[in-house]
Amino acid sequence: MPSVLRITQQKRHPNRYNLFLDNDERISVTDDLLIKYQLSSGVSLSDAQLRDMKHAADIVFTREKAIELLSLRDHGSGELKVKLLQKGYDKAVIENVIASLRSRDYLNDRRFAETYAAELIRLKRLGPRKVKEKLFRRGVGADIIHRVLLDYDPEQQLENCRYHFEKKDRQLAEEDPVKRKQKLIRFLQGKGFGWNSISKIL
Question: Which domain holds residue 73?
């Protein structure tokens, strides 16, 4: 059984400690785990204790990082999961943490999708296809995207399409009429509008 050689406090995280073991292993734990396992120099740990302690620490560290990301801005579950995976956290632990955050309503995909879609529609004035694409890239599920887009008023779509049309049309004032129309159509499609809206504005 490995024994603890020494314990040092981490400078960047005052509530975390480094455990140096006599098997050349170093693991990070929280102050709660120090108390729970009565850790100090010379204490021996069974393989089961070591495994349980590592798992408990992983959950705490993953949750801390998830909450840190959520404190910066709201996230969808899929987006948060990808970010945590990219930072090297364990997939099974991430699933555990995400489920816990959902149960406490810290993480709510419908709320996130509605807020983000409102920003894309009112501020960036994007069409429904572009809104759908951006929500999908943020990891929002197809069913939630569908429900959110049902609230995108057709008149608002036309107004947003007209906004982009007028802005681009001024830039193309000197173009050949045929090329001008083709460029306008491609531009509006790129902003996420369908032919129904584009044809009415044209």
Answer: 4-103
